[in-house]
Known about the structure:
mainly alpha
Amino acid sequence: MYATRSDLLAHAPPGVEVPAEPEASRLLARASEAVEVLTMTAVYPVNADGMPTEVEHADAFRAATCAQAVHWLDTGDETAPASGRP
């Protein structure tokens, strides 16, 4: 998972309610999976667990995961990516 509930709380704009655990972790796990799909062909250094090792890459994955989760929270639709593409 690329982000924590604390990251999501920091990223969510006013008016978007971040769920409590364990729902927040479930949502972030799904958002992390969506980010992985969208970055499948990206090349960047990773550790043994497959997590980005460069700070700027980790920050980008965290921000993208939070943005995806916020989109789902805002729209109530976990079936569509934040880009709006099917």
